[in-house]
Design a protein that fits this description.
This protein has helices at 60-65, 75-87, 112-125, 146-150, 177-188, 192-224, 236-244, 256-264, 273-278, 288-293, 308-319, 325-330, 334-339; strands spanning 4-13, 18-26, 29-35, 42-43, 48-51, 53-58, 91-100, 132-140, 159-165, 227-231, 249-251, 268-272, 299-301, 356-360, 367-373, 376-377. It is α/β, with parallel strands linked by helices and 379 residues long.
């Protein structure tokens, strides 16, 4: 027997418009969308009915697992805490970032992230989680052990996204030593001599490992059909390299030149939603609003603040004439879903999963009132 429910009197945000109407859910999928209200069903009282958000890049699980230097929290408890914050931000599909490759800036031991992935699978199987969790491997290609760490995930079907990163000085995110000095020397409290040695070691590791490891990981992902992301591309040469690897997602480009070239080449350009909310990058790179204003921003990620993913689209729609709310919401739902091949979600459309959130907003910060995943209320 089919299970049905009706959500009515809602401002339904479609991919290209907003209508006042109702949505019929049957057996976990959207069965009908109609204009006008009904006399039965859950009354949204004019609140927005949005597609469940799709989060491609969040480091938030790591923050719950290691909340202080040297502290490791119980994995299942950390996952549940992360999941609760994610789903109450309207996120119904989340790619949890697991960091591979150890360097002097931190990282995790061999097997530690594999253990976290196993805990995620266990939590899913036991019905502990409300969002749909998939895995994004953040691979630091300039480290000696990144391929060794990747071996732990060679047969894991939950891995749907891999990003290729190099945070060495003079590369990508840190093209200038001013940025790198602020981020590492000042924040870590290193002396001049200590910092000089640290920089030399990181540059040597990058020169030795980054190219071969990038090649090996891109080849492995292509063979498995895993979406590949570049990270912090800064130049046209970086973008050309990404195109050659078959990369589909350009994460956090650090220059307008790289962002525009990536967008023109058909890569989805991803920037941080906190960057939108704050109006600037925390590491001194380009402002995401400027990319949005130029029409070359495709995807938003909450990065380190889950709630920013529902907050940022409203900021864009409020402040940029070229971006209306449907276009802004697509950056956190339809476009990220398409980029990683999840064609069954990310939009309010007949036949897709009923991943839906109810959001109230008169002015200012939005309030997520309710969330459904595959037609089941989870928040």
């Amino acid at each position: 027997m089919s299970k049905e429910q009706v959500l009515t009197n809602a401002r339904i945000v479609l991919e290209d418009s907003i209508i006042d109407g109702s949505v019929l859910i049957r057996d976990g999928k959207i069965a009908d969308i109609s204009k006008g209200t009904t006399t039965t069903g859950e009354d949204f009282e004019g609140d927005y009915l949005l597609p469940g958000l799709v989060e491609l890049h969040t480091d938030h699980l790591e923050a719950h697992y290691s909340p202080r230097p040297g502290v490791r929290w119980l994995k299942i408890a950390a996952i549940q805490a992360h999941d609760a914050q994610v789903v109450t931000s309207g996120i119904t599909t989340v790619f949890d970032c697991l960091r591979l490759g150890s360097d002097e800036d931190g990282g995790f031991h061999k097997g530690e992230m594999r253990s976290m992935a196993d805990a995620l699978a266990q939590a899913q199987q036991e019905g502990r989680l409300r969002a749909d969790h998939l895995i994004h491997l953040r691979c630091e290609v300039s480290t000696s052990d990144v391929l060794d760490h990747y071996e732990d995930f060679e047969n894991d079907p939950q891995v749907k996204l891999v990003s290729l990163m190099d945070h060495a000085p003079g590369q990508r995110q840190f093209q200038t030593m001013d940025q790198y000095t602020l981020y590492y020397k000042s924040k870590r409290g290193l002396s001049d001599a200590e910092f000089e040695k640290f920089v030399e070691r990181q540059q040597a590791l990058s020169a030795k490992y980054a190219g071969p490891h990038r090649d090996a990981l891109a080849k492995a992902c292509a063979e498995r059909g895993i979406t590949i992301a570049s990270h912090d591309d800064a130049t046209i040469a970086h973008v050309d390299e990404s195109i050659g690897y078959g990369i589909k997602l350009a994460e956090f480009p650090t220059s307008f030149e790289a962002a525009e070239a990536s967008h023109r080449a058909g890569l989805s350009v991803l920037m941080g939603a906190p960057n939108i909310v704050r109006g600037k990058s925390h590491s001194g790179n380009i402002a995401a609003r400027d990319l949005a204003d130029r029409g070359v921003l495709d995807v938003l990620s909450s990065d380190y603040v889950p709630f920013s993913l529902i907050h940022a689209p409203f900021v864009l729609a409020d402040e940029l004439e070229a971006i209306d709310l449907p276009k802004a919401i697509a950056m956190v739902s339809a476009t990220p879903a398409r980029t990683v091949g999840l064609d069954d979600r990310g939009r309010i459309a007949v036949g897709l999963r009923a991943d839906i959130s109810r959001v109230h907003r008169q002015e200012g910060i939005p309030v997520v009132r309710s969330v459904w995943r595959e037609g089941r209320r989870v928040a």
